[in-house]
Amino acid sequence: MQTFENTVTIRRPADEVFAFLADFGNIPTWNYAIEDTSEASPGPVGVGTRYRQTRSIPGGSTEEFEVTIFQPASRLAIHGQIGPFQATISYQLEAAADATTLVNTVELDPSQTKLRLLAPLAAPRIKAAVAQNLGKLKLVLEDGRPA
Question: Are 97 and 65 in contact (CB under 8 A)?
Answer without folding.
Answer: no
